[in-house]
Amino acid sequence: MKICFLGTGSSAGTPVIGCRCSVCSSRDPYNCRSRASILVTQNNVNILVDTGPDFRYQALREGIPGLTAVFYTHFHADHINGIDDLRAFNFLQREIIPCYADPRTAAELEKRFQYCFLPPDPDWTKPALSMKAIEGALEFSGLLVQPVPVMHGNLPIYGYRFNDAAYLTDLKSLPESSLSLLGNLELLILDCLRMEPHPTHLNLEEAVALARRIGARRTLLTHMTHDMDFSSLAGGLPAGIEPAYDGLSVFL
Questions:
Q1: What ranges do the domains of the chain cover?
Q2: 104-123 residue pLDDT tens
Q3: pTM for the whole structure
Q4: In what order do the strands lie in the sheet with 187-191?
Q5: Is 2-244 a domain of CATH 3.60.15.10?
């Protein structure tokens, strides 16, 4: 299984428009972060998690050849507003692409992007998607996808487990019932917004504490703001915890 970090940034991305801080002005390419998303690949199955506003650029950068399905974590703009660019894969594949989400996110997407969920036109020139609300695990040619409920402040959303890896972004807390879904992980990908506390996201201290509690063999931090300088962060983390960066690929 391969996991590619399409983006590791927060809702504003890094650099932030109009900002001249040291991270936004940095020449370190690891400080250039597009909106958070991953691509999970195994046995010719390509699972995309979220379609942020940078999805077109991310797909071109990584040369994504096709998509099997799209899983959404929640309905905030930085995780959904690139949905129209899925039409390129409809055109290439000549098939409807299935999308999956928790029931509220599924309803929000169908409401906001109604045109994407209509029957395809003859030339496949617009998005042709199907939306399915899920509450349990699904399997794609040996790739098991398990929803993991987490709390984004007061908003219940989904993280996902993919075989021995888990992707938990945009969370502040983890229900006890979800902890049992995260045992024996090779890789944990975890939200880590900034140094200072935030009402709906983990900060660095909270992310490290939760990573230790879950106990994955390796933890990679994502969804980071311009408060996070890559080299400074990488040099100060405990063993087994690292910052991710755009374009990073991990093989399990």
A1: 2-244
A2: 999 999 999 999 999 999 99
A3: 0.97
A4: 138-140, 143-152, 155-162, 165-168, 187-191, 218-222, 241-243
A5: yes
